[in-house]
Design a protein that fits this description.
By secondary structure, this protein is of the alpha/beta class. It has helices spanning about 65-70, 135-145, 175-180, 200-210, 220-230, 235-240, 245-250, 270-280, 280-285, 305-315, 320-325; strands spanning about 15-20, 20-25, 30-35, 40, 60, 80, 85-90, 95-100, 105-110, 120-125, 145-160, 185-190, 255-260. Among the domains are: about 40-195 and about 240-265 and about 290-300, Vaccinia Virus protein VP39 (Rossmann fold); about 205-235, no CATH class.
Length: about 325
Amino acid sequence: MKLLDILACPHCKAALRPAGEGLACTTCPRRFPLERGVPVLLAEEQAVEVQHERELTVWDGYFSSVQQMLDSLAADQVVLDVGAGNRRLEDPRVVRMDVVWTPHVDVIGDAHALPFRDGCLAFVLASAVWEHLRDPFEAAREVWRVLAPGGQVGVDCNFVFPFHGYPAVYFNASREGMRQLFARFREVAVEVAPWQMPSYAVEALLLEYMRHFRPRTALEREFAAALQGLARFPLRDFDAGFTQDEAARLAAGVSYMGLKQPRGDETVLPPPLMELYRRDAALQARYPRPAVLLQSLLSSENDTLLRWARTEGATGHPEIARWFEERIPFTR
């Protein structure tokens, strides 16, 4: 399976075909160009303007628990990274999408009209994107559409954080807000990740305040000096004193993970693995939610049934190892 096999017209969601120097919808009359070899699959014809307030860092790979999840997926299970234009990696199963071209993007598209076929993805990941969407509810519906039954979503969103570009911040979300956005999903975790803790919120607000605060009086200058003096305190260390419930009240952001399970039992895990799971009481006790692909961002370890299948399970059960070996790799 190749990238073209999962792409779709962002308007009517039909399949695409090569057409000259670009792609064409197989159902409606729309055509889509390539930009430096990357398909431009935007529902809106006008150019998207994205204003970054500073040069973006180029990231290599993912947080360890996310990487463990990726390492556990089969060769033909595809992950979509929404807003990943600054992500540099070699895993062909990860399709990086952004609204503008970058040297690291695979598809140019919009989260409000994902240019992918129904039910073709195993996981949808989005970091630092949802606050920049003008209709985050529509984008959440699109994630539901493109995920396979049993697939999982992992999305974060700013909560207590200053306004910033890309091109704007429209909506920040609390834990309850994220639950409303993804209400159709079966919740896996709603949490404050280590990089979203209160110290990040306090630091970001103070820096933004000082950028715009212009002291004129002696009292104002004293206040500015006091704010600058806060920089000597190790705020990151202080985060350890907050519980998750306390941190969620003033977190810089919130992460949501949920499963697409319309019936409540769908999974993208290998059938031989699930057959073994149904017979093995010890596995059932250890993994009460077998379909979960990514358990949490709070730990560097992703202890899931899928991870077990790729380690202990594949070693002790040839039928599981064989299933993974027989997958035909997805290529971009």
